Amino acid sequence: MQIQYNGGKIAHVQNDIGRALIDAKLAVEVKPPAKPVPNTTWEVRQGLNPEHGPYLAAHCSTCGQNACSGGPKTSQTMKFLHCGIVENVPQYVARNYDKQYRDWQRGDESRPSSVSASQRDIERARIEWLESKRVAHVG
Ligand SMILES: [Zn+2]
User: Fold this and answer.
1) What is the mean pLDDT of residues 18-43?
2) How many distinct structural domains can be found in the chain?
């Protein structure tokens, strides 16, 4: 355990010694900082235009990190580094992405022609925001 002596010095000591020092009021316990609890939202998103295909986006509401990645293997290879952990794509998201990616490759998916211009602008702004976040964190 970690303790802080009354003089201010912080030290790692065996638990029984630490307890004895604390009981004798010669030191106080230093608690390790609480680990953040990751809270990730994974989404399959459609690319900006039909040539780009779907991509995966991850957002963690605990640390505020974002990541996005596309391509045929990204559901297997994408890693989301945040909250001191490395997170893989959850299986149900990977399956969903792979299906949408295959559909896109076959040209089956509904083209975003039905999407309004204002909705496209919202999507574009969000992608730009995600991209800027990604660059900021990688660089
Ligand atoms: Zn996080």
Assistant:
1) 94
2) 2
Burial class (CB in 10 A: 0-12, 13-18, 19+), 109: middle
- Residues 51-70 have pLDDT tens digits of 889 999 999 999 999 999 99
Same domain, yes or no: 54 and 79: yes
Mean pLDDT is lowest, of 1-15, 58-72, 93-107, 109-123, for 109-123
Residue 42 Cα to ligand 1 middle (Å):
12
Pair 47, 100 in one domain: yes
Residues 120, 68 within the same domain: yes
Q: Are residues 46 and 114 in the same domain?
A: yes
Structural domain harbouring 49:
40-138
Q: Using CA atoms, how far apart are residues 17 and 27, in angstroms rounded to an integer?
A: 11
Q: Does the predicted model carry a pTM greater than 0.85?
A: no
Going from the Cα of 127 to the center of ligand 1, the distance in angstroms, rounded, reads 19
CA 32 to centroid of ligand 1, rounded, Å: 19
For residue 40, how many C-alpha atoms fall within 13 Å in the half-sphere facing its CB?
22
* Overall average pLDDT of the 12-39 stretch: 93
